[in-house]
Design a protein that fits this description.
Blueprint (H helix, E strand, L loop, with lengths): L3 H32 L6 E5 L6 H17 L3 E5 L6 H8 L7 E6 H5 L1 H4 L11 E17 L7 H9 L5 E6 L2 H14 L2 E6 L3 H9 L5 E5 H9 L3 E6 L25 E9 L4 H16 L1 H9 L3 E4 L2 H21 L6
Parallel strand pairs: 1-2, 1-3, 5-6, 5-7
Antiparallel strand pairs: 3-9, 4-7, 4-8, 4-9, 4-10
Helix pairs in contact: 1-10, 2-10
């Protein structure tokens, strides 16, 4: 009969061998998954209705991925709750590379500050693939209103019944951008929620609301058509794509700077070889001249596939927007 120390050593060795075998099989499975990836259509989820920057960019990237990886990449719009519905859907999806997320910065960094009971954790539930691009928001009003700049907007607000302007909210990040504008300018807003930038633009055109702080891709066609007015961009410097639109700071409200970004994410646990294949493809796509030109036409600067930098940016933005929400007394709802 074996004595107890010998039995213990053998049990330990068996456990070590089992663990090593499991690790080898897991690594083999991950590599095998990447070798043929993608073997079936890939879903790219957007948490907003069609028509906004995230949707437009998702369709641009999906078409390019389809060309490079020889498989269908299909955009699925799952709007609602400032993109929390679509974001939560991807967080719980099988982490195999076949369900991806094109997310606004707000879905990952603002929602935690303003929404209770989120079904996802931005830092724990996702694998960053790429920062697709960054862009300004544009403070926009209906062309019919007698407003030419932000000082006019502030004066117009004082003539409303409650001293506030109805502001169309396409996402939580746009709401907090408006709140930072309110803090800088003392313009007060009633926030009216919509399911995406497209519906907010429609509400502006119908004069259901007086102002929208919106992504440039959604509003510029109507601005160029003379149906809406662009009063200011939210970035610290003028946009190269829209050099004639002044910044909020140039309107007399110093130090205002809000830049919005869009990222490509996968569920946590997606095999690293699959992530690497996607990062390689996206890195090439973001450097292609026609991609750069199309993104510039949207008012966007192309991003990169530095996943560590994107993770750090998410963490920093969460801290920033949490502070803004608390200063505005916006409690999670």
């Amino acid at each position: 009969m074996l004595n107890r120390p010998v039995r213990a050593r053998r049990a330990y060795l068996r456990a070590v061998c089992t663990a090593l075998a499991g690790a080898v099989l897991s690594a083999f499975a991950s590599t095998a998954a990447a070798d043929g990836y993608p073997e079936k259509p890939v879903s790219i989820v957007v948490g907003f209705a069609p028509g906004g920057t995230n949707d437009i960019l998702a369709r641009l990237v999906s078409a390019k991925l389809q060309e490079r990886l020889k498989q269908s990449f299909v955009v699925e719009n799952k709007p609602g709750a400032s993109s929390a519905i679509g974001t939560g859907f991807v967080a719980k999806a099988k982490p195999d590379g076949y369900t991806l997320l094109v997310s606004s910065s707000g879905g990952l960094t603002v929602n935690p500050a303003v929404m209770k009971g989120l079904s996802y954790d931005p830092m724990q539930d996702f694998e960053p693939i790429a920062l697709l691009g960054s862009f300004p928001l544009i403070v926009t009003v209906p062309a019919a209103l007698p407003i030419a700049n932000l000082k006019d907007l502030a004066q117009y607000a004082t003539g409303t019944q409650d001293g506030r302007l109805d502001h169309g909210v396409a996402s939580s990040s746009f709401q907090l951008a408006a709140e930072t504008l309110s803090a800088a300018s003392d313009i007060k807003f009633n926030h009216v929620s919509y399911r995406g930038s497209g519906p907010v633009v429609a509400a502006l055109l119908g004069q259901e609301i007086q102002v929208g702080v919106l992504d440039s891709a959604a509003v510029m066609p109507q601005v160029q058509a003379g149906k809406l007015k662009a009063l200011a961009v939210t970035t610290g410097k003028r946009s190269a794509a829209f050099p004639d639109i002044p910044t909020v700071a140039e309107n007399g409200f110093a130090d205002y700077d809000v830049t919005i970004w869009t990222g490509l994410m996968a569920p946590k646990g997606t095999p690293e070889p699959v992530l690497a294949a996607l990062r390689t493809a996206v890195a090439d796509i973001l450097k292609e001249q026609d991609t750069v030109e199309k993104m510039h036409a949207l008012g966007m600067d192309p991003g990169n596939t530095d996943s560590a930098a994107l993770s750090e940016r998410i963490a920093q933005d969460i801290a920033r927007w949490d502070e803004v929400a608390r200063a505005a007394n916006l409690k999670p709802e």
